[in-house]
Design a protein that fits this description.
Elements lengths: L1 H22 L5 H6 L6 H12 L2 H15 L4 H30 L4 H9 L2 H33 L4 H48 L9 H8 L12 H13 L5 H8 L7 H25 L9 E2 L2 E2 L4 H8 L5 H29 L11 H22 L3 H26 L5 H22 L6 H22 L6 H11 L5
Antiparallel strand pairs: 1-2
Helix pairs in contact: 1-8, 3-8, 3-11, 3-12, 3-14, 4-12, 4-14, 5-10, 5-11, 5-12, 6-7, 6-16, 7-8, 7-14, 7-15, 7-16, 8-12, 8-14, 8-15, 10-18, 11-14, 14-15, 16-17, 16-18, 17-18
Length: 490
């Protein structure tokens, strides 16, 4: 325990130092929110990957989905790697970097306002970000604090204060530059931990090596090695679609493309981000599938079986004692990266997108204060452990990505997209996500499918409505007007 505490303190001190040195280079809102668009391929790729895969992957998804679907959960690996990472970078990164610089915008709501000439879209987008991303950060605080309680013996409340305090200090000081630098180190820990996790488990006698995985799982249940696991095709299809296409429309993920140093680094960053996704997802989902070879039944909490406890039990009972510290840092790293991105994007929704122009000169200190405010509110929600947060997070990806994906994607590539199409598509995404989830229940096994549909339906709604309402608008005029007003990052 003393070794764990010492390593954790060194880790915390390192993050604070990064925040302090980043603060010296952070003079404007553009510096704070986008690191002055100066990030290279390695930092950009690792920032994308470590924000993509949070504690949810290594604790909740790995155990729950791996146990339920068996080896068919590896379809999610294929989707996350090829669609969520490779294709996302190929389709979105270069175009996003060029267009947002030309428009002189820093956030998703700003992009939608300038592209579609709609102040309503800007305000509505900022409100969506606030409603869905701040509670999301609270849920991450809760999950990470539970892990600290189990592994480190730090009571939930004190763990909550530690994590929130650390997030606040280095994020408020250094902004996205500090987040990105720490993401690089956090991503390195994630990669190393993920590789060790799967290599060690496969080498255990219960598994018997790579060649025995299929045979051993077939002995437990033949369905575990089928193309589709026991829950069925549609739940699996929904999971693949939601987790693979979702990052295309999430503001905290798209922000990574805004901050690229230039379009020339996209090729290298694309390769790195794809490798990162492949290693992390393969390790997590295969490990979750292998839990069948180590446990006969699900762990229980309050007398109820809970598959989300599988990975913590696997780490505590099967892995070497020293690995519990590595796993803690792995999940800590993934969660801190996600938390930082969520808080940064949430604070920007108020500072950049909703504050009146007269406050522009004071944007940087206001944004720093709001980062602290959002962390505080997330902390309060996590402290009281509000039960509806869990249900809200089950549909957050579908609601947010379903709202933003169509207007963002068409806005980049199709001149015919107009404001009425964008507004209609955002409303359609929300209605599908919230409506289906409410009707069938937030805990329905088909919940991921509703989130995926919430992304697909707007992709049809936007072009149809745009064509019916007149099509193309003069975007170049609004870009010139934006430049005349001045760069909001200055």
């Amino acid at each position: 325990m003393q070794v764990k505490i010492i390593v954790l303190l060194i880790y915390v001190a390192g993050m604070i130092l990064i925040g302090y040195f980043s603060m010296k280079k952070t003079k404007t809102v553009g510096d704070f929110f986008l690191a002055n668009r100066s990030l290279g391929p390695w930092v950009s790729a690792f920032a994308y990957g470590s924000s993509y895969f949070s504690a949810v992957l290594f604790i909740g998804y790995a155990g729950n989905i791996g146990w339920g679907f068996g080896l068919s959960s590896l379809w999610i690996v294929v989707g996350n790697t090829l669609i969520g990472s490779l294709l996302a970078w190929l389709v979105l990164a270069r175009r996003t970097r060029l267009v947002t610089e030309e428009m002189q915008v820093m956030t998703m709501p700003e992009f939608l306002q300038v592209r579609y000439g709609s102040n309503f879209l800007k305000a509505f987008s900022a409100l969506l970000i606030f409603v869905f991303l701040v509670p999301y950060s609270a849920s991450v605080y809760m999950g990470l604090s539970y892990l600290f309680d189990v592994v480190m013996g730090i009571p939930y409340f004190y763990a909550l204060l530690l994590i929130a305090g650390l997030t606040g200090v280095y994020l408020v000081m250094g902004g996205y530059l500090a987040v990105s630098i720490t993401d690089f180190f956090q991503g390195s820990i994630m990669l190393g931990g993920a590789i060790f996790l799967i290599v060690y488990l496969v080498g255990r006698p219960e598994v018997g090596g790579w060649s025995q995985i299929v045979a051993r799982l077939r002995e437990v249940d033949p369905q575990l090695v089928g193309a589709v696991g026991p829950p069925g095709f549609w739940p699996l299809f929904g999971l693949v679609g939601l987790t693979s296409l979702g990052p295309w429309g999430l503001p905290q993920m798209v922000q990574k493309f805004y901050a690229l140093k230039n379009e020339k680094i996209v090729y290298t960053a694309t390769i790195l981000a794809t490798i990162f996704a492949l290693i992390c997802t393969f390790s997590a989902y295969l490990s979750g599938s292998l839990t069948h070879l180590f446990f006969d039944q699900l762990p229980q909490i309050n007398g109820e079986p809970n598959p989300e406890l599988l990975m913590p039990h696997l780490i505590a009972e099967v892995m070497p004692p020293a690995f519990s510290l590595i796993f803690l840092l792995l999940v800590f790293s993934a969660s801190m990266s996600t938390l930082s991105s969520l808080v940064l994007v949430s604070s920007s929704a108020i500072t950049i997108d909703l504050l009146p122009a007269r406050f522009r000169d004071k944007s940087l200190p206001i944004m720093r204060v709001l980062c602290g405010v959002f962390i505080f509110f997330s902390l309060l929600i996590a402290f009281y452990r509000v039960t509806f947060i869990v249900n809200l997070m089950s549909i957050s990806w579908g609601a947010v990505a379903g709202s933003f994906l169509a207007p963002y994607l068409y806005g980049l590539y199709w001149k015919g997209a107009n404001r009425w199409g964008a507004i209609s598509s955002m409303i359609a995404g929300l209605v599908v996500s919230l409506g289906f989830s409410w009707y069938y229940g937030f805990n329905s096994p088909l919940a991921p499918l509703w989130g995926f549909l919430a992304m697909l339906v707007p992709l049809v709604v936007l072009p149809v409505v745009s064509i019916l309402t007149g099509g193309e608008e003069d975007v170049s005029l609004r870009i010139r007007e934006k430049r005349a007003v001045g760069n909001t990052g200055n």
